[in-house]
Amino acid sequence: MPDAAAIRLADAAATAAARIESIVRRTPLRASARLSAVTGCDVRLKLEHHQHTGSFKLRGATNRLMTLDDATRAAGCVTASSGNHGAAVAFAMQKLGVAGVIFVPEKTSTAKVDAIRSYGGDVRFFGTDGLDTELHARKYADEHGMFYLSPYNDFDVVAGQGTCGIEIVEQMSEVDTVYVAVGGGGLISGVASVVKHHNPDARIIGCQPSNSPVMARSVEAGRIVELESRPTLSDGTAGGIENGSITFDWCRTLVDEFVLVDEEAIATAMRRFIADEGEVIEGAAGVALAALDHKSDAPGGAHVTVIICGGNISRDRLATVTGDG
């Protein structure tokens, strides 16, 4: 059962859904014939790669910016991102007339950097790990009197991500299991609070690449751990977690199980999705699909949702997945 904090988060997500609807797109929930046949379940894909910026991140960024007072907006905004959150913040700032700076790790994909810049974002590079970039961006914001917009360690950001869950329960009245890729834990925390409020018996499966399982290992340890991340197709979930992140406790209490998948499984899941759906997705979305392929032990007839969290991937990286490189 969700605790009081999770119920408060679910309520905030419902409020956020009404707040952001003029900017954020309501994404489709599409049945997957192949995955339904393979698993014996009713499998639906929540297509967050259809969002304006190509990922779910627009939800949290828009909600947080819309909750700021006029003086804070006028001072400007700083954020850190592996790409998708940065694009979302740039898009929302452009819509709301807010200026700011977006820091990204030095090896961020060109597709994601180009996306941020296409929305008018001022991109600056710092660090090789997402956590290093976040800490630098927070320090920069403090030194320049600007607001730091965390990718996940912020209640209103997480509530914004929870609007994805609001849509899922509206589009699919029976929800038994949800597979969600996990990086900092904002998406899974928000979605889990809503889905478990709707159905306390629903199972939330956290999905991570074996090469960067920071949240899974932290939950195992009972504390946020430092863990070196190896290269992964799922760059959107890679890297460390900020100490004291509010998402950690939600991941401990709301996530029923973590599934780790290797790089070959991620690439295979991406190729299958491209073949089945005729659409490109990024590695983080492949992680959730690979976890379903890996697990596949949901009871027959169960109602399963897999969140396709994003579709922003560079041509070079896509070529390595499809074998065209």
Order of helices and strands: HEHEHHEHEHEHEHHEHEHHEHHEH
Strands, total number: 10
pLDDT < 50 runs, ≥5 residues: none
Beta strand %: 5-15%
Q: Fraction of residues in helices?
A: 40-55%
Strand order of the largest sheet: 1-2-10-7-8-9
Count helical runs. 15
Cα radius of gyration in angstroms: 18 Å
Report the span from N to C terminus: 48 Å
Tell me the overall shape: globular
What is the overall pLDDT average?
A: 94
Give the structural class: alpha/beta
What does the largest sheet look like? 6 strands, mixed
Describe this structure in words.
With 325 residues, this protein is an alpha/beta fold. The protein is 49% helix and 15% strand. The protein is built from 15 helices and 10 strands. It has helices spanning 4-20, 33-39, 57-67, 70-75, 84-96, 110-118, 130-143, 155-161, 163-171, 186-198, 214-221, 246-254, 263-277, 283-295, 315-322; strands spanning 29-31, 42-47, 77-80, 100-104, 122-125, 147-149, 177-181, 203-209, 257-261, 303-308. It has a 6-stranded mixed beta sheet with strand order 1-2-10-7-8-9, sandwiched between helices. A 4-stranded parallel beta sheet has the order 5-4-3-6, with helices on both faces. It is globular, with a radius of gyration of 18 Å.
Give descriptors for this structure:
325 residues, alpha/beta, six-stranded mixed beta sheet, four-stranded parallel beta sheet, 10 strands, 49% helix, globular
Task: Summarize the model shown.
The chain is an alpha/beta fold. It is globular.
Itemize the secondary structure elements and their pairings:
Elements lengths: L3 H17 L8 E3 L1 H7 L2 E6 L9 H11 L2 H6 L1 E4 L3 H13 L3 E5 L5 H9 L3 E4 L4 H14 L3 E3 L5 H7 L1 H9 L5 E5 L4 H13 L4 E7 L4 H8 L24 H9 L2 E5 L1 H15 L5 H13 L7 E6 L6 H8 L3
Parallel strand pairs: 2-10, 3-4, 3-6, 4-5, 7-8, 7-10, 8-9
Antiparallel strand pairs: 1-2
Helix pairs in contact: 1-3, 1-8, 1-10, 3-5, 3-8, 5-6, 8-10, 9-10, 10-12, 13-14
